[in-house]
Design brief:
Blueprint lengths: L21 E4 L4 H6 L14 H7 L5 E4 L2 E5 L3 E3 L4 E3 L6 E5 L12 E3 L5 E3 L2 E3 L2 E2 L4 E6 L4 E4 L2 E3 L2 E2 L8 E13 L2 E3 L2 E3 L7 E9 L2 E3 L2 E3 L5
Parallel strand pairs: 1-2, 2-5, 3-6, 4-7, 5-8, 6-9, 7-11, 8-12, 9-13, 10-14, 11-15, 12-15, 13-16, 14-17, 15-18, 16-19, 17-20
């Protein structure tokens, strides 16, 4: 019978994670899908799915979102310090994909990191039954939205107090130089435009948002 041998293992506690510093996103056309190639670090090899791409990014990185219509089919959420930068609020449009069932309701964006930034794009078409922000929620850890347009988003059910097109939940949440208009809430509590539980709304135009009180009885 052979003697038993002791085997030693080196436990490695530090892992190195590699991701692109800057990555690109284009609309999901057949041509763009065929050209997409990791690490998606040139406009020619851009990714076409924002949720998948944001999962690859690290703190301090940036996603450059091209001009055009970018369709979303579920919530895009991150707790990383990632920048989402469009080509201009009137050129880069993130929207709920047209043609989805009216029962398929979801918020569009959620960020929750002091260094997370959403800038230079339009967020539109969101449809959510209840709370929180149907277009964008900035969580307790903070984040910034700047130079954006938020329009034509709808909270269709009975929202809580923080329901709205844009919801700020933390002291480090900031909305700056944005236009927030033509959003609608059907709720006994909330705001069609911006709900500021904590944080700062500044240098922004908030107008023509609509709220309808409907009794649950």
């Amino acid at each position: 019978m052979k003697d038993e041998q002791e085997i030693a293992f080196d436990e490695k506690t530090d892992l190195l994670t590699v991701g692109p510093k800057t990555a690109y996103l284009k609309p999901a056309t057949d041509e763009n899908i065929a050209r997409a190639e990791y690490p998606f670090d040139t406009p020619e090899t851009a990714h076409t799915n924002l949720n998948e791409l944001i999962g690859l990014m690290l703190d301090g990185s940036e996603i450059i979102i091209s001009e055009g219509l970018h369709n979303l089919t579920n919530l895009v959420a991150t707790e990383k310090g990632v920048r989402l930068t469009g080509a201009g609020a009137e050129k880069t449009i993130l929207r709920r994909k047209p043609g989805l069932s009216s029962n398929d309701r979801f918020a569009l964006l959620s960020i929750n990191h002091t260094n997370a930034v959403v800038s230079s794009l339009t967020i539109t078409g969101g449809l959510l039954e209840k709370t929180p922000g149907v277009a964008l929620t900035i969580g307790a850890q903070g984040g910034t939205m700047c130079d954006c347009i938020v329009s034509n988003n709808t909270v269709s059910g009975y929202g809580a107090g923080d329901a709205g097109a844009v919801t700020l939940k933390g002291a480090k949440a900031l909305v700056d130089r944005c236009v927030i208009t033509e959003n609608t809430i059907r709720s006994d509590d909330g705001c069609g435009g911006v709900s500021v539980g904590a944080g700062t709304l500044r240098n922004s135009l908030v107008f023509n948002n609509h709220g309808t009180w409907v009794s649950a009885a």
